[in-house]
Design goal:
Blueprint lengths: L8 E5 L7 E5 L2 E2 L10 E2 L2 H13 L3
Antiparallel strand pairs: 1-2, 2-3, 2-4
């Protein structure tokens, strides 16, 4: 994820032991607050979009 400004998160592959991508924002994996499981994405672009949305919502 490259762009202007400061880095607020990243996409990390293999969290589930497979090819899925996890979204990390402010040092924490983003996921379901009820199950405490990380949300997995099929592509790094989807994970990056989740990071961006979390940042905009101050999660």
């Amino acid at each position: 994820m490259f762009g202007e400004g400061h880095r607020v998160g990243w996409a990390e592959r293999g969290l589930d032991g497979g090819d899925a991508w996890g979204a990390v924002c402010e040092g924490y994996f983003l996921g379901d607050p009820t199950t405490l499981e990380a949300r997995l994405h099929a592509t790094p672009e989807h994970a990056a979009r989740t990071v961006h949305q979390a940042y905009l919502k101050n999660l």
